[in-house]
Structures are given as C-alpha cells and as structure tokens.
Amino acid sequence: MDETVQYLTKAIEEKRTTHVVTANPIMIMAAVEDAKYGAMLKRADLIVPDGAGVVWAAKYVGQPVAERVTGFDLMHRLFEEGEKRRWKAYLLGTSQEVIDAAAEKLQLQYPQVRIVGSRNGFFGPEQDAEVIEAIRQTSPDLLFVARGADTQEPWIVKYKQKLGVPLIMGVGGSFDVVSGKLKRAPIIFQKLRLEWFYRLLQEPKRYKRMLVLPKFVVKVVRDKEKVTKPRATP
Question: Of 216, 206, 132, which Cα lies nearest the Cα of 176?
Fold first, then answer.
C-alpha cells in the first residue's frame, strides 16, 4: 500500500494521467473469458491486488504480492495525501443520493481536499461528451468512478486521455460504504478474507456475480503452470 501511494502521489504531482485498476477475481475471470475486456485491462497504468483471492492466487502460482491493496483503503490514503497537498477531487457514479452523501462525508473528513464536483453514473454514450467536459472544467487531481462492472473500467480506458485527470480510479461499491448505505465488513471478516460473503449478506442479488469465485479457484489450481503466461490480445 505504501509503495502504491508513493508511486501515485508522484504521478499526480507530475500531472501524469494514471489509470488504476483494483483487480478482484471477478474482473480477472471476465478478462480470461472476454479477450476484449482482457485487452482493455492491460491498457491500465497500474493494477493492484484488491481481492483476497488475487493475493492467494499470486502466492499459489509462486509470484506472491507484498499485500492486498484494497480500492476503499487506497482511496482514503489518497485523500489523506490530498489533505497535505490541497488536491481537488471529483466523484462520479452510483445514484445521485449516494454520491451526494459520499461527497458530503468525504469533504467533512478531508476538509483540505476540495471536492469540486459529483455526478451520478446513470448516463449513456450520448452524454459522455457532456460528462467529460464537466469534469475537465473543474480540473481535478483525483477522479473516482463507481459504475457498473461492465462499464466502469471500459469507460475510463476509452476516455482517460480526454479527461486529462492525473489519477483516475474505479472504486466499485466504495461510495455505498462511505455514504452509509452499506457497512464495510468487520475486521474479523477482513482477516478471514470473507468480505465478499459479508457484502453478499447485505446485497443478496449479487449472488450471480459471486458464482464466478469457485471457477476462479479451479482455474488457478488447474492452470497453475500457465496462469502467469501472457495471453494473445485482439
């Protein structure tokens, strides 16, 4: 985590557009099964191991990572850096009610960071230009995006150069937790690597997405020797 924050702080201060992907097993399996999605992820500037399953898999195949770097914690660490450096942030995604509540709470928690804008994530391609221009007008240092799994990272990859924001990161359900709509898993669930189960208890409708987790485990165990080999991209 410390290395990630240090690396990103330097990139932000140097105004280098950096797209961070917080990878979990569901995203990795999507990349395995969809070549275009896999190629899109490879265009990210930095991928960090968000899911506990990713940390386990890396160790299992003999290429361990130092530790888990969750998107939720990384977002807060970047806000802490923003406190020292007077950065500006823009929040994009989820419902307007949730994003407004999250913006209000983050502004109270990090008063030296200027939250210069927030917008819900319910817009289609015909509104992309309008959304991009609204973000550009505010010149944020940080852009956090929470949209659906099928649109979040593809949208960032497609428009990161037009957005011109130093740090762009997809944060999934983080705004739901910040706003108070959902609770973060207690420490015991985190230590047992069962955050996914705690979230499933709060959002049972996510069960279909969770069905990919056993497939991920089987894939890693079965293809241990091949799992780190690069795949052909379209």
Answer: 206
Structure tokens at 140: 């944020």
- 26: Cα within 13 Å, side-chain hemisphere: 14
Query: How does 164-186 read in b/e, with b if 16+ C-beta sit within 10 Å?
Result: bbbbbbbbbbbbbbbbebbebbe
Q: Cα torsion for 66, 71, 73, 77, to the nearest 10°?
A: 90
- Work out the angle at residue 210's Cα, subtended by the Cα atoms of residues 205 and 211, and round it to the nearest 5 degrees: 110
Residue among 16, 29, 13 at smallest CA distance from 168: 16
d(C-alpha 9, C-alpha 78), whole Å = 8
Report the amino acid identity of residue 2: D
Per-residue pLDDT of the chain (234 residues; tens, 9 = 90+): 999 999 999 999 999 999 999 999 999 999 989 999 999 999 999 999 998 899 999 999 999 999 999 999 999 999 999 999 999 999 999 999 999 999 999 999 999 999 999 999 999 999 999 999 999 999 999 999 999 878 999 999 999 999 999 999 999 889 999 998 877 777 776 776 667 666 667 767 665 666 788 889 899 999 887 766 655 554
Q: Which residue has the tokens 């011109």?
A: 164
Tally of CA atoms within 13 A in the half-sphere of 175 that contains its CB: 30
Q: How many residues does the chain have?
A: 234
Phi (first) and psi of residue 196, to 5 degrees: -60, -40
Q: Which amino acid is at 210?
A: M
